[in-house]
Amino acid sequence: MWIAKPQRLLRITTWILLIIMASGLVVILTHTAWPRGGFDLVGLVQGLEAALNITILLGAAALFLATVEVRIKRKRALKAIHELRALAHVIDMHQLTKDPERLRLHAQETASSPKRTLRGPELIRYLDYCSEMLSLIGKLAALYVQKFDDPVALAAVNEVEELTTGLSRKIWQKIMILNAFAAEELV
Predict the structure, then answer these.
(1) Cβ pair 123, 181 in contact under 8 A
(2) Which of 18, 65, 89, 110 is most open to solvent, judged by the fewest CB atoms within 10 Å of its CB?
């Protein structure tokens, strides 16, 4: 999977940039003209401040370069997980009109009502398929980050799994109602 593969070109580029930065620091330090008469207090403070600023900036740049690959992978993983979340909502939208109470009440249809062609067993099968698809979406989200130990991506996967589990629970409530109807021989 793309998330488990190391990005070799990016890693090589990062190492080259880190080596250039370290080499530049070494060149600056070796070519610095040190005062012959020693440091006065003001010169020492200014020199330490400049050295501290350079160290902080180089450290921040090194940290940025070292985390580029993780940030790219996180962005791609979150995008894929977002697509799975959207797919779960699409499945939920399709099952919303499959209300088991409409079979029992023989409700009056209006001109804008969707056609309800599924009866008891077919409706149970349809809802079961919806539940299975939601379960698969939750498992696919987990597979996306299987070899990517990033807390942000793992949190997104947990949210998708909670979403699909909750939606599946609602669907199973409908299935249980339909099974109760069947036991009463109303379907």
Answers:
(1) no
(2) 110
CA distance 79 to 61: 26
Same domain, 141 and 93: yes
Q: Report d(CA 45, CA 132) in Å as an integer.
A: 68
Which structure tokens are listed for 103? 């079979």
Q: What is the DSSP string of 82-113?
A: HHHHHHHHHHHHHHHT--THHHHHTPPP-TTS
Cα separation, 150 vs 74, whole angstroms: 7
Does the structure show a pLDDT above 60 at 137?
Answer: yes
**Shared domain check, 100 and 140:** yes
Residues 87-97: b if buried by 16+ CB within 10 A, e if exposed: bbeebbeebee
Assigned token pair, 177: 């109602």
143 and 94 fall within a common domain: yes
Give the pair of three-digit tokens for residue 8.
């070799």
What is the span of the domain harbouring residue 53?
8-30+39-66
What is the number of domains present in the chain? 2
Q: pLDDT band for position 97 (50/70/90)?
A: confident
pTM of the model: 0.70
Q: Write out the DSSP string of 40-65.
A: -HHHHHHHHHHHHHHHHHHHHHHHHH
